[in-house]
Amino acid sequence: MTWGETGDGRTATVREADHTADVAIEVSARSLADLFAGAARGLAWLMAAGVLPASEEERRIEVEEADYESLLVAWLNALIGLNDDDGFIATRTKVTLEAGPRLMATVRGARAAEQKRHVKAATFHLLEVTRSGAVWSARVVFDV
After folding, report:
1. 28 pairs with which residues across the strands?
2. pTM for the full predicted model
3. What are the sequence ranges of the domains in the chain?
4. Are 128 and 138 in contact, with CB atoms under 8 Å apart?
5. What is the fold, at CATH topology level, of the domain defined by 2-143?
6. Using one digit for the tens of pLDDT, what is the confidence trace for 3-58?
7. Euclidean distance between the first and final Cα of the chain, in Å?
8. How far lies 27's CA from each of 10, 111, 131, in Å?
9. Distance (Å, rounded) from C-alpha 101 to C-alpha 89?
């Protein structure tokens, strides 16, 4: 499955990728911030059992890491942590990136009554964050 709306008017292309044991997504976007927002949308799609209620709650997330790969894993694991805490699934994200690299995000979402699958963690297995010309791409494998 492929989709393209990140939830904040920006676009990123996200698709579920084949993986033998777990589940993976591939994301591409014109900016790094859109890439991170697209990865969040892909995570939401992996977890949600259907249409989620309207984005009712707002949360803030800040993570800082040594590189973009580690930052992507930390970002996605922070979103998974919100889901583990109370079933929250982020449906809209506004991502800002700063040197460090550091990510600050406002996420809106809802608590899911049921989920398609429980995602345990984003992993470093086969992780890629690359840039080719004007396009950023990432591949993330999730432990389910």
Report:
1. 13, 137
2. 0.86
3. 2-143
4. yes
5. Archease, Possible Chaperone; Chain: A; domain 1 (3.55.10)
6. 444 445 566 877 766 656 689 999 999 999 999 999 999 999 999 877 776 668 99
7. 18
8. 13, 24, 12
9. 24
